[in-house]
Design goal:
The complex is a heterodimer of chains A (165) and B (169). With 165 residues, chain A is mainly β. Chain A is 0% helix and 61% strand. Chain B is mainly β and 169 residues long. Classes of the chains: A mainly beta (165), B mainly beta (169).
C-alpha cells in the first residue's frame, strides 16, 4: 500500500526588486550649483543645469512581489509597508550630489519622505505571485568646484507584508 | 489524510535602488588674441575690404584697400584665437555674432564694421560652427571675418575683440 505524502507548500516569499535606475542623465552645471528633477512620470525640470544629451533620463521602477508558495488561486488581499531610507550625500571629483524630494506614483501617495512608512495594497490577487510595480522620482542638487564626475546614489528600500487575507 | 494548505506568513525584503547622473566638466572659452586686420590704408577717395580667413595665411585686399605693414613690422593680419576647455572628447557648438566692430590703435580712429565672421577649430577643421575637445579636454579655434573700409578711413592698425559663445552639443 502506498501512502500519499502530503505536499508541502513552499514558504511564502516577499521581495522588492529595483528594475530601473532613477536617471538624471548627463549635464554640465552652469555656475557652481544647480538641480534637476525627474518626476515619477519621467518629466524633467531643471535650474542651473545644461543638459548635454537627451533621452537619458527616467524615473526609477521597483516591483514588490509576494510569492504565496503554491499555485492556489484563492483571492489574496495584501497590505504591505514600504519605507525608503534617506539617500546619502555622495561626493566624487569635486562634485557633490544630494538626492531629495522623492516622489512616487503609488495610489494615494505623492511624496516619499525618508523613514516615512507608506502603505501599499495589492488586492484581488489570484495568481501565485502577487505584485505591484511603482515608480520613484526625485530631485538631484549638485555642486561642483569645476570638475566632472559620475554619481551613483543608493536608494535603500524596505518592504514588509503585514497582512495577507 | 488531506494536507492542509500552508498558512501564509508575512515577510520582508530589502533592496537598493540607484540614482545616477553624469556631471560633465563645464565648458570654458578663453580669448587668446583679437581679430587683427593689421595696418591697412585705402587709396584716396576709395573704399575697400580686407578679409582675414580663420585658416588662410594671407589676408585678401579688395577695392582701394591695401596693407600698410612694413615687411619687418609686427602688424600683419591674423585671425582671433580662442582656447576651449571642457569634458574630454565632447563636441561643442561655436556661436559668433552677426556683426562686430574693429577699432584703430590711434586715438580718434573710426570704428569699422566686420561681417561674415567664420570659425575653424583644430578639433573639427571641417566645420565652421563647431569644435571637438581632445583627450585632454582642450581645443582651439580661430575666427576670421571681412572688414569694410569706407573712403577716407585713416591708415591704422585695426583689431577687434570678438564675443563668442560655446555650448556642448
Amino acid at each position: 500500500m502506498l501512502l500519499a505524502l502530503p505536499a508541502r507548500a513552499a514558504t511564502p516569499e516577499t521581495t522588492i526588486t529595483p528594475q530601473t535606475e532613477l536617471r538624471f542623465g548627463s549635464f554640465a552645471i552652469s555656475s557652481s550649483s544647480g538641480w534637476i528633477r525627474v518626476s515619477p512620470q519621467g518629466a524633467v525640470t531643471q535650474s542651473g543645469i545644461v543638459k548635454v544629451s537627451s533621452g537619458d533620463t527616467g524615473a526609477a521602477r521597483f516591483t514588490i512581489a509576494y510569492d504565496r508558495g503554491n499555485n492556489g488561486q484563492n483571492r489574496l488581499d495584501l497590505t504591505i509597508l514600504l519605507v525608503i531610507s534617506a539617500p546619502p550625500v555622495v561626493q566624487s571629483g569635486g562634485v557633490t550630489g544630494r538626492l531629495t524630494s522623492l516622489q512616487t506614483d503609488l495610489p494615494g501617495l505623492t511624496q516619499l519622505l525618508p523613514g516615512q512608512v507608506a502603505t501599499v495594497q495589492i488586492t484581488n490577487c489570484r495568481t501565485r505571485v502577487c505584485s505591484r510595480t511603482f515608480h520613484v522620482g526625485g530631485r538631484l542638487d549638485v555642486t561642483s568646484n569645476g570638475g566632472g564626475a559620475v554619481l551613483a546614489i543608493p536608494i535603500p528600500v524596505d518592504v514588509t507584508v503585514i497582512s495577507v487575507r | 489524510m488531506l494536507a492542509s494548505p500552508a498558512s501564509a506568513q508575512p515577510g520582508s525584503s530589502t533592496a537598493q535602488g540607484t540614482a545616477t547622473a553624469s556631471v560633465v566638466e563645464p565648458l570654458t572659452v578663453l580669448a587668446q588674441s583679437p581679430l587683427d586686420f593689421g595696418t591697412i590704408a585705402v587709396a584716396a577717395g576709395g573704399e575697400g575690404t580686407v578679409i582675414v580667413g580663420p585658416a588662410s595665411v594671407a589676408a585678401q585686399y579688395s577695392g582701394a584697400a591695401r596693407s600698410a605693414c612694413a615687411a619687418t613690422g609686427h602688424c600683419f593680419p591674423s585671425p582671433a584665437r580662442f582656447l576651449v576647455r571642457g569634458e574630454a572628447l565632447r563636441s561643442y557648438r561655436i556661436e559668433l555674432p552677426a556683426f562686430a566692430s574693429a577699432r584703430g590703435d590711434r586715438p580718434g580712429s573710426p570704428s569699422l564694421a566686420i561681417t561674415d565672421l567664420i570659425s575653424v577649430s583644430a578639433g573639427s577643421p571641417a566645420s565652421t560652427d563647431s569644435g571637438a575637445l581632445d583627450s585632454e579636454g582642450r581645443d582651439q579655434f580661430l575666427v576670421g571675418g571681412t572688414l569694410s573700409i569706407p573712403a577716407g578711413t585713416p591708415p591704422d592698425r585695426y583689431t577687434a575683440e570678438i564675443a563668442v559663445t560655446v555650448t556642448y552639443n
